[in-house]
Backbone:
């Protein structure tokens, strides 16, 4: 039977790491497959089986330390489905925070995991949870994922790109491509920033090193795929922290940075009336909110 497991790759990693005692984690339903795993992973190391009701227990680290385990391999049900003999895949989720605000950074984040892991059950739909809960989930996502990348585009950089005729969708697309090129996933799930996902996908692929990456770009992907929700958590917490830093560094209260926020509106009005001193680099001067107000006041437009 063909499995999803690349045993040779696993054995190469075990040899490279010099592992002597390897723990095989299996849920109850896969105990019967242990003999298959044992046969395919024979080597200079000793194999130990961990399964049953204690699967996934927080007691595992204590147990491992007591018997000197130096490597863990988790096999889930996906690896033992009879499909097409695919090896373990790397899956990436990408989302942004701060696309619409008149103040602060645009943050684009990518999260990478292997397909024997999942963010299901963490409750990572960032739009439906409080900022405090998002901060708690930030650490959980970072600890569970294999790797993550966070790209921050400052307000001043957004203004510069806008002045050159580069819109924010394109700015985001470029950062998404950079994230995929850095994380090197087999599949990338993306909360699509463009009105037409097919057009976005075609343009994105032009900027990828690996043209064979499977791209799943959909609107509201953060609510459909937990890995995109996980990326959204990192992006939103990062942006929230940057807003707090601006308020601290400049001794101002700016709210969320979104034009619909009354606190942000109040700051923008006072800012444009000169009450906050010199021009601030954290304000997006190319935004229509700023342009229209300046035009109404008969002031010079910066961009």
Residues:
């Amino acid at each position: 039977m063909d499995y999803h497991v690349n045993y040779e790759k696993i054995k190469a990693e075990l040899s490279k790491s010099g592992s002597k005692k390897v723990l095989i984690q299996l849920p109850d339903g896969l105990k019967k497959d242990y003999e298959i795993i044992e046969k395919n992973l024979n080597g200079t190391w000793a194999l130990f089986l961990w399964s049953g009701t204690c699967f996934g227990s927080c007691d595992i680290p204590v147990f491992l330390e007591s018997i000197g385990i130096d490597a863990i391999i988790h096999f889930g049900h996906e690896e033992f489905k009879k499909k097409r003999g695919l090896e373990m895949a790397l899956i990436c989720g990408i989302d942004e925070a701060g696309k619409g605000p008149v103040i602060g950074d645009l943050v684009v984040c990518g999260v990478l995991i292997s397909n024997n892991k999942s963010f299901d059950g963490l409750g990572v739909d960032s739009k439906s949870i409080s900022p405090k809960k998002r901060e708690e989930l930030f650490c959980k996502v970072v600890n569970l994922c294999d790797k993550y990348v966070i790209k921050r585009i400052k307000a001043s950089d957004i203004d510069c790109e806008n002045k050159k005729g580069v819109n924010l969708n394109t700015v985001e697309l470029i950062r998404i491509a950079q994230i995929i090129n850095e994380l090197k996933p087999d599949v990338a799930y993306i909360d699509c920033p463009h009105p037409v996902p097919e057009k976005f996908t075609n343009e994105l692929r032009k900027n990828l090193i690996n043209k064979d990456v499977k791209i799943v770009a959909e609107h509201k992907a953060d609510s459909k795929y937990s890995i995109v929700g996980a990326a959204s958590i990192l992006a939103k917490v990062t942006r929230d922290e940057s807003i707090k830093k601006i308020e601290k560094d400049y001794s101002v209260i700016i709210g969320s940075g979104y034009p619909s926020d009354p606190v942000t509106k109040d700051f923008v009005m006072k800012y444009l009336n000169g009450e906050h001193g010199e021009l601030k680099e954290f304000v997006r001067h190319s935004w229509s909110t700023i342009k229209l107000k300046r035009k109404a006041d008969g002031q010079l437009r910066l961009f």
